[in-house]
Amino acid sequence: MPPRNLIPITVGFLALALNYGTRSSFGIFLKPFEVEFGVSRGAISSILSITMLTYATLAFFTGYLVDRFGAKIVLLMGAGLAAFSCMISGLAGSFIQVTLSYGLIFGAATCFLSQIPVLSLLVKLPSGGNSLSVGLVGSGPGIGSLFLAPSIGAVISYAGWRSAMQVITWLFVGYLFLALLLLRKNGYGNIPQEQKGKASLGRVFFKGRNLPLLFSSFLLMATAIYGVLSQEAAYAIDRGMTLTQAGWALGLIPGIGVIASPLLGWLCDQVHSQKRLGSLILAIAVAGIFFIFVAKSWLVLALGSIVVGTAYASYAPIYSSVTRSLFGPDFFGRAWGFMAMGGSIGAALGSWLGGYLYDLQGNYHLVWLMMAISFLAASTTLFLVDTGNPDRPYAVCLENETPKT
What letters, b where the CB count within 10 A reaches 16 and e where it falls short, cover 309-330? Predict the structure, then answer.
């Protein structure tokens, strides 16, 4: 790995650590919001749903901005919006204000700080950004959540949820200045002309089934993961565990990515079929849902979090590897942005569905069943993707009119 690549890898890692660590910690605020504003868990879960729907609306546009103006501008916009969102959320006097500030403003921020600019930055490095480097950066959400979720829980326990929002605000302000100082305007290096494809999104989408299948798999996986992320902490507390224990269990879902994401990135560079590896991991995640469902102790709950978290960690190295091989590096931002729309719609659906099904039945039985079904469907749709010749990106094949899918 060239030394010059360490700067974008570090900046990308921190972006994902703060962004996804904050977003995956939303479940910690479920009980405090319920007490302060007197609203149902379904209503509170809808905040995260709005966040992810905003993400979905802006995902493809974010990919266009990255391909057009570079990752630095997009990351700075995201850090500024995230700081502003958390600041006014901590000052909110009503549930509607929190919904607007965290749902809409942070929704835009989380899109601008997502894998769309970060992975595009890595893929467009002169060295090409292999799956191991993507896996290393992909461990950012894990490390961020591993520390942020329990830390936020501790701050809420001792100083209240408003103080926790202000702490998050200053973290994003610090990242804004770091990215401003370290990143070049247009990233690090350009893609050689011979590597560039010229196919449009319409040609790629309507030519074959791969992009719709990736979109669907991403959506279903995110539905399951965010259904768990939005409800596991409250479920653990209902089962008699403390807020701190719930925070640690919740943090393990993205936190296991510290180990799993680099390992899966390395495996992606070794195995012949990345999609089969991903399909297997998503299928195994059903066992994690079962462990969470039957958990009567923190250890069993943590085991379920680790299994589900491994599936969570798989999407950066595995899905990006499949996407890069199919669509090429210059088209990656827009293709990944389109797929991210599916992921954010799924995250919104999972967050809302978890709270709604709980309010409907008064227990979590149907919640965990739906999340298990979502993981199985995500595994199946990923397996159906036809990766064709991994050495010849699909977008380039389209340009030469000899597509191999």
Answer: bbbbbbbbbbbbbbbbbbbbbb
For residue 267, the one-letter residue type is L
Structure tokens at 354: 């978890």
Q: Return the amino acid letter for 29.
A: F
Domains contained in the chain, CATH given:
3-400 (1.20.1250.20)
Distant-in-sequence, close-in-space partners of 339: CB < 8 Å, separation ≥ 6: 211, 214, 215, 218, 319, 323
> Residue 309 has which token pair?
């978290």
Residue with tokens 């919904």, as numbered in its chain:
99
Amino acid at 318: I
Phi, psi (degrees; rounded to nearest 5) at 66: -65, -45
Residue 46, number of CB atoms within 10 A of its CB = 20
343 phi/psi in degrees, rounded to 5:
-65, -40
Contact 51, 348 (CB under 8 A): yes
pLDDT digits (tens, 9 = 90+) for 342-394: 887 888 788 888 888 888 888 888 999 999 999 999 999 999 988 765 444 44
